[in-house]
Amino acid sequence: xxxxxxPSDRLRTVFVMSKRPTRIELxxxxxxxxxxxxxAEACEVDDWNLEVMAAFMRAAYGKGYCDALTEDDQGSLCxxxxxxxxxxxxxxxxx
Length: 95
Fold this sequence. Notes:
Layout: H1 8-18, H2 23-34, H3 36-43, H4 50-69, H5 76-80
């Protein structure tokens, strides 16, 4: 604790939050919010191994893929964070 009674970790949080978050930090936060259910499940895992890690990676990839397909405004995640919206591959666009 500091002399004012504020715990040091709380003061650090206030200091960090006082700066403007970067574009990548905002994107990370948006993705973390979308993956909240996976993060909660990951917190319950006691025995991490390659198989468990691979399952979470596949789940996160699948979640992102589904989110992209079901966005109300296609490309909004990229646009909202200032990233270029990737063009569809013309060979697969007709399928």
